[in-house]
Amino acid sequence: MMTAMGGQLGLAYAFVEREIALSKRYWAWELVWLVYGIVTSLSVAYIGLALSEISGVAVDDATVSRTVLYLLVGTIAWRFLGIIFENIGEVIAWERWEGTIEYTFMSPVPRFTHLIGMCGATLVRATAFSIAILAAVTLFVPVDLSNANVLSALVLLAVGALAFVGLGIASASFPLLWTEKGLQMAYIVQAVVLLVSGVYYPTDVLPAWMQVLSTISPATYVIEGMRMALLDGADLLTLWPNVWPALVVGVLSVPLGLRLFVAVERYAKRTGRLKRSG
Amino acid sequence: MATLTATRPEVRPTAGRDALVARSVTKTFKSSREGVRRAVDAVSLRVVRGEIYGLLGANGSGKSTLIRMFSTLLTPDAGDVRVFGLDMRRDEDAVKRLINRVSVEASFFKKLSAMENLVYAGRLYGVAPEESRAKAMEILRRLGVDVARVNEPLEQLSRGMQQKVAIARAFLTAPTLLLLDEPTTGLDIRSKREVQTFVRDLRDEHDATILLTTHDLDEAERLSDRIGILHDGRLVAEGTADELRARHGATALEDVFMSVTGRRLDEADAAAEEKAK
Fold this sequence. Notes:
The complex is a heterodimer of chains A (about 280) and B (about 280).
Chain A: H1 2-25, H2 27-49, H3 51-55, H4 61-89, H5 91-98, H6 101-106, H7 111-140, H8 150-172, H9 174-177, H10 182-196, H11 208-216, H12 218-232, H13 236-271
Helix pairs in contact in A: 1-2, 1-7, 2-4, 2-7, 4-7, 4-8, 4-10, 4-12, 8-12, 8-13, 12-13
Chain B: E1 18-31, E2 35-48, E3 52-57, H1 63-70, E4 78-83, E5 86-87, H2 92-98, E6 99-102, H3 114-124, H4 129-142, H5 159-172, E7 177-181, H6 189-205, E8 209-214, H7 217-223, E9 226-231, E10 234-239, H8 241-247, H9 253-261, H10 265-276
Parallel strand pairs in B: 3-8, 3-9, 6-7, 7-8
Antiparallel strand pairs in B: 1-2, 1-4, 4-5, 9-10
Helix pairs in contact in B: 3-4, 3-5, 4-5
């Protein structure tokens, strides 16, 4: 049992090692995404710093500081969750683009192991990017974490990661169903989640029908909970109403996403869609 | 000649002489442009252990579709496929451990080096990186690849070298059944000969069974113990090159092809290309 598990972990590691090697070879693009992430986060933080000028009302330093952290939590948490969703969602599209999809799918690696490996590689990348962005932003913008409960925030982020892994796996199957438009559909789903999840604003400013959508987005609970943890020092007990909905999405979406992916793979094999060109 | 050894996957093929048995395998595709197209039509064939079976056919005759079904990448609409007695649908994971495939286009992570690609491929088949590196170097040398270039990104290597690395990758995992889908297409004469010699040497030295598709008559005759001719998705002739010539009163394989398909091979290729436009 342990040997079999070790063997599967070894297989999964093949994908982590491959992705790290690819990141090194595509280092210029990685740099582009990193700079883009830093610039986006900084731009959002400066909106907070300009609160008085934008609103036309004098705002005290504490409020400005709170607004900056409010915005930064949203932008960095979304960056982290977005990388997970995008990278896992691109599992098929990326292999098709490289021309390796047939080789990967005829190798004797169980699909579960394959996807676990890709999720591992994605978590490494998302964590590295988020830490780098946070570090870079703090060089330019004062970030007040004096009240922060970092542990609670990290737990929420981990729960959010689980939920987005499941959603990413489900969306990764789109390019197998619709070879031309599948990836574009995944990006649209991601954009809608960004809009309704309160990344930059509280969800109660949204129209009623969008607020309904926000209640089914795990990002809503994760980002709101992280704000409570980092701005007000909320502990896990207080945050439980934010933890459990995201946890439910994660616990359901990972196995359902896997089942969907495997079913779609079977369909792709029946219809000839499992090939390098669309 | 050095002997190639590698850890065989821990899968026990069933006893018997048959490496691959396909019975009435059929595959139909639907598209808005062509409507319903039967790419493979009730093909039955048997490849015995240690044999090189050459599947000869023009472009669009169904060779690649058949190979994709034998590679587990495509599910037949009808019929069944057994690899060393294992049912391809029911025992898919076990079958995958026994086969490997070289496709007409080398499919690699082109930014990664040859060695990085080979070590990655080895990992997928449970071969340790150290073993992959040593074995890869040995195979690449035998294929005439300049091993000083194994750490360069693959995109910087010629098409011929990339295809040789693809062949090295397939042998690295010690497949019991090797599916070669037009492995020499697009190679220069010298590279083509090196690959052909390597394929034959491996069959002679090892317990490998090879199913080769080609639309090169010379290659089919040079490498294959038996040849099957595929035309419009159907297997229209099968036998050794001598048997086929004798059966059709022909002096060359080209005449056999003409006799069973009604066209010369190059004409059939040209017609397929025209149809694809």
